[in-house]
Amino acid sequence: MEEIRTRFPPSPTGYLHIGGARTAIFNWLFAQKTGGKLILRIEDTDEERSSEESIQGIIESLKWLGITWDEGPYFQSRFINEHLAAARKLLESGHAYKCFCTKEELDRKREEARKKKADFQYDGTCRNLTPKEVAEKEAAGVPYTIRLKVPRGEGFVGFEDIVYGIIEKKYEDIEDFVIVRSNGRPLYILSNTVDDIRDRITHVIRGQDGLANTPKQILIYKALGALVPKFAHMSLTLDPKKAKISKRTHGELVAVSFYREHGFLPWAFVNYLALLGWSTPDSREIFSKEELIKAFSLQGIGRANAVFDFRKNDPKFFTDPKAISVNTHYIRNLPVEEIEPYVRAELEKAGIWDPDFQGAKRDWFLRTVDLIRTRYHVTTDFATLGRAYFSDDYPIDPKALKKNILKHEGFKEWFPVLADRLQAIKAFTVEEAEKVIRETAEEFGIKAGILINGIRTTVTGQAVGPGLFDVLIAVGQSRVVERLRKSVIFFE
Ligand code: GLU
Fold first, then answer.
1. What is the reported pLDDT for 492?
2. Which residues neighbour 237 within 8 Å (Cβ) at sequence distance 6 or greater?
3. Ligand 1 binding site (Cβ under 6 Å of any ligand atom)
């Protein structure tokens, strides 16, 4: 059986965005599933817009996502001579011709068509020049483009797209399009096709915006006598207002690196992106890597455009709620050792990493991560909401302070008493801590909840969190006592 070969060919004109990542993921999944290969090709022929920084950024984002490729990166710009050789071959075989029409002539014809409200198509003026006429113009140094000679008369280019089904485009609706510019540079449509032929691509899986190019590319394949690959065009990724996602309008909110920085686990993000426009009949949402590879099929790609609902203006979520819920699932359910490196990275970034967390205090560290993650959504939460567990320098949420502490003048006296009593506990366990706090509340004639909320706010800086007695054990007796003692300053 023929080896399946897919490709991801980003143009390095910015960061890797959601749409590009999704395309890469679908190609990767298909290659993984079929035992095929994924080729990474950097389409860097647009010298002005391509940059080294973008290439590095794209590669870094792919690596972070865990997308592995088998060949490449190849660089399109290194193959320009090959693209031009293909054009020469097409000239020689009579599948292409030199066009000497000037830009002015073409603009005039375009303008005439516009006035008649007709679609403009190149009229083939140079298609039938005699060899003598061509030789004369060349000898006179008239610049020329190279155009593909599209078959004329009845007939059409047809193919079966794996997602969109049968697509047919009449020859008469395709003009003799340019494949080499008058400055001698190949057009992207030629380079892309020649590269796919050289890389022996069997399946072109790309965004639906590529569909407009496909009939023309098929003509190039055929004219070069190459095998036409299978095509699967994927629906587009839209923003919440149903506009196409683009780097220009959405800035960093659609960059893969943004999600990395904002606490997404790479696999959770891949899992979420796979759900954009792809589904299984049972609409399942959570897949391990092995499960996703097994479940994936090109037939599962929908035709309806997918919406990446990142809700720029929603104060509660900084991104798509489904993306958050998938990430939350992984944060809370993966074996804790698997999220350990990501928590470590967050604590390092926040400057509160202690090497002992991976040494003498590792058991404590893992238990604490396991305890607090039950309320978290993103890995950054460990360093922000969870800061008090890992550092003694943590902020107190002002709203919680007001509601849970300052409202009760009594804390001025209660905190020192609680501190003494908790300090006196010999074996600091959940049960003992609970007993002491409940008894103290009774003695003071107040509800235990008042003390519990006040202590939680003091010890963690937060109004909510896991059960307080578990929290106290995690933070540890001496630190709890110290924090309660210090809290009297809230009333100064
Ligand atoms: N370089 C193109 C892009 O980034 C890829 C087109 C294709 O997949 O054929 O949009």
1. 82
2. 18, 19, 22, 244, 245, 276, 277, 305, 306, 307, 308
3. 9-11, 43, 192, 206, 210
